[in-house]
Amino acid sequence: MFFEEFKVGTKYGTKGRTVSEADAILFTSLSGTYNPLFLDETYAANTQFKKRLVSGLVTVSICTGLVYQLTSAPFGEGFVALVGMAVRWMRPVYFGDTLRTEVIVSSKKVLKDKRGLVVLTGRVMNQDDIKVCEIEYTIIVLRRRRPKVRGGTLS
User: Fold this and answer.
1) Domain 3-143 has what CATH class?
2) pLDDT digits (tens, 9 = 90+) for 103-134
3) What's the rounded Cα separation, in Å, for the pair 44 and 41?
């Protein structure tokens, strides 16, 4: 999407995706986040959570991937860079939970050099429609080029 296509207040919804044990193990291996709360059922059973959790970073990664797949494609054509992300977790995510994200265009601002700054706020919901996480994405996108008027005609 280009800057002009983002309308403050517009909401987009992603498809759902169920988090598997394989997702967590692959992520843990890739990132090196060997936390027994994510990997050791016996350890996790003796915590306040009573069973293994999905890493918050897995949750953020899966939900960011779902936003990338939106048909409106906020990270598609026109996208320049993700320049910031703020995350707040509210509830644990467990293996077998199905996550989806509701994304709202929170704000936008014109920048120099035919670019714009857009803030998207994502609410990550589980299969019970309980909010488990909020993600705020700050992205830079291109503005559409306006045709130049020369001598009364468009060029």
Assistant:
1) alpha beta
2) 999 999 999 889 999 999 999 999 999 999 99
3) 5
For the chain, the first-to-last Cα distance in angstroms comes to 24
Domain boundaries, the chain: 3-143
One-letter-per-residue 3-state SS of 6-39: CCCCCEEECCCEECCHHHHHHHHHHHCCCCHHHH
Structure tokens at 75: 């990270």
- Sign, CA torsion 126/38/29/33: positive
In DSSP notation, 87-104 reads: EEE-S---TT-EEEEEEE
Residues 138, 82 contacting (CB under 8 angstroms): yes
Query: Is 86 within 8 Å of 6 (Cβ atoms)?
Result: no
Our CA dihedral for 147, 81, 108, 101, rounded to 10 degrees, sits at 120
The string of pLDDT tens digits covering residues 4-45 is 999 999 999 999 999 999 998 899 899 998 999 999 999 999
Helical (H) or strand (E) element with 108: strand 98-111
